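anyone seen this seq b4? input:
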Amino acid sequence: MLPLLTLDHVTKMYYTEAGEFLALRGISLEVWPGEFLGIIGKSGAGKSTLLNMINGVDTLTSGEVVFRSNGQEVFVHRLSESERARWRGRALGIVHQSFQLLPMLTLLENVMLPMDLCGLYRPRTSRQRALELLRLVELEDHAHKYPTQLSGGQQQRLAIARALANDPPLLIADEPTGSLDSTTAEVIFRLFERLVQEQGKTIIMVTHDTTLIPRFSRSILLVDGMIVTENRNHAAEADRQTDRGTPPPAGSDSRGTPNGSRPAPGDGLTRPGRPA
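predicted toks r here
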């Protein structure tokens, strides 16, 4: 089995009036189907920049991002901007800290919107799927309300339902609990856990909350644009595999290194410019 996502020595340099700023320093990472990966780091560590390299919203300086799904391999940063937008709409579900809902649309319409934008809208089946997703996040009874009539936690649950609209292989969540109180944040995190354990979804979640580390199947710590430690949670991984009826992984990771906390690879800045 191949990784769903591979980052190979990804570097991002910003050029400003104050000079050059190296935001990512040769990040190499593999994300496997069914993983719940946490990206941990303080403000300014490069977490959001890393997500933007994965989802293709921003362009990288050097390296490669490869996405594999349905037997196809996509080199994300070799696509044109319009091609990346179409790929992103079908392959990724993105959950923002600030929800990014459209207030003039009902909950049902917000969930159906990504289907329409990607050319997947079918009047009968799309409405049925949207209702199923609202049921999944326990908002079906509010389907015809507007986002402004919901609490913050309900709005984030709606954002998750919308992110799942096109059944994407990968869900990306950027500080999804950052603006919520602890009780509501726990509800959102448990929803992500259910999506991984019961539906086999692959989720990458960015957070600065180190208390969540034991609950990810794997986590990386990002400091100054580099992965400094990587931790694999054996218990969480075993629980996920048991719930899905598959055997737990062997005692080594994809690089043949014993699982658990370990230093990350070097910064890899010896690689010359962006590949063709």
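The longest strand covers residues 19-31. Helices lie at 47-55, 81-91, 107-117, 123-136, 152-163, 182-199, 234-243. kinda curious what u guys think
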